[in-house]
Design brief:
Shape: globular
Number of strands: 18
Radius of gyration: 21 Å
Oligomer: single chain
Length: 343
Amino acid sequence: MENYHIAVFDIGKTNKKLLIYDPNLNILMTQKIKIEEFSDKTFNHDNIPEIERWIITSLKNNSSAYNIKAISISAHGATFTCINDQGELAIPELSYTTDPGEAFHEAFFKEMGSRESLQDETCTPDFNVLLNVAKGIKYIQNIFAKQFQKVKYILNLPQHFSFKLTGQVSADPTYVGCHTYLWNFREDKWSRVVDKLNIRSKLPDTLLKPWDVVGTISEQIASETGLSPDTLVTTGIHDSNASFLPHIISSDGQDFILNSTGTWCVIMHEREKVHFNKDELGKVVFYNLSAFNSPIKTAIFMGGLEFEAYDELFKGEAADNCIFYPELYQKIISEKNCFILPG
């Protein structure tokens, strides 16, 4: 078998990583860089051009040391790009940290449907700022109305980078199904919000699996990086679902709950079908779609910030007096009686 390597780009909100794997999925090399979002005094932006340059430079710098034959990309959520017919950004990408104001949120639900009905249909809760992709699209339609007329494709973040590498457009279930308001979980198709936004023609007709090959790198990318023109690029995946995927594969059908921790704590549980308890509608309880298109019941809270806040409180003398009792900790866990999560 050919001794090939796989390049995986993990695009976090601040930290970006490149990992090189061998055919047995052993990590051979890891590189990390910080590319933070920036503000132009009006809007917040993820630095998409700088990330693109870093990806190309990273591939170029590693093309002689590794026989890279496949490229895969995972990326943080709630982010999309608008592409014109030249394959470039028609509108500057807006970070989901952009605050559109409360009046915008109220107008969105007045036009698209109530919070509860949309949550039941699209498994999406109402978030503030622009953490819902449909809200982000509606916002740029309002703010950049003239420029939006030139938009040919709307791409989710992993698929933006696979498009830049191959020129091929795609979408995958893990991103479409992550609190976007764009996917009807009940009917497994684009939602009514897509039609109310009048964007159906700008979205792919079908969803590919994250590991499906969207194409090979373009001649320009091959020339810039030194990679072979037959280097494959997969569709890509949402990062929280990427952390869930190996557990689905290795669980042998056993039930489990994954708590993926970081700035956000993402608690995920695969279910056979979508179901909301009556008291869950209107709360931050929702469903993701897994890489296999199965529903994953999800709750999130900013556990990393909670930890930092309490860590700051306990610094100094108080920290010296805090005693960890492992027996008590294990007793609480084993009883599985009552747990309280922030939020």
